[in-house]
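Can anyone check this?
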Amino acid sequence: MKKILFFALILIGVQSTQQLQAQKTRNHMAYSIGGSYMYGNNTGDFSTFTFTPSIVGGITYNRQLSERMDFRVNAFGQHINSGGHDRLGIWRTRQWEAMGLPFDFRGFGLGGDIMPTYNFHPNKAGQVGSSLNVYMGLGVGFLNVWRVEQLQIENTIVKRNASTAAAYIPFRIGVNTNFDFEWDYAIELGLLTSTSDLLDGNDFGNKSLPVDMLVQLQFKVIRYIGVANRKASSR
């Protein structure tokens, strides 16, 4: 009986060590949800926080490259809308009417990108590390938005369907927990700068920056996948 208990304890210890080592690889899938905003010509005033937030969700695959560097593949879906902050009849909306540009829209965007990521406080196998890690990354991606626009033509409100595809440059910074378990959690801020000024269907330059931008703040749930890989390789 004592021998059985002894070997059982050894087996539990080996499995726990394998799980910890697998977790330390940082290879994981992450699932996220949060709030978002489009910085555009007809989406409100970001400087005075006069804008309408929307919902964003995403999925991430992370692969560890070195002690501090990772490589990530990100995909997201985001609701977009103007928020109805521009009143008809003012100078700006009269200019939009003359140019055939929308004053209001709502729709949905899908995007994907690749991004090298640097970890400032990664845990190291066999060492007591920081309970929190700060990470930051810069990459390149592609997105497409579909929207229903509203524009004014000779005092008549007209709706039309439109879409825009563009490359974008994502910058992300976040903080994640460093638990010695299969799960971790993170808060992440993403700034996705588009190469197009037509994500909102309006390119009349009345904003500070000459590009459209998606701003995303998300809560992420991280699931390490090294445990499954370790088990599979030991068979």
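Reply from J.R.: I decoded it. The two ends are 27 Å apart (CA to CA).
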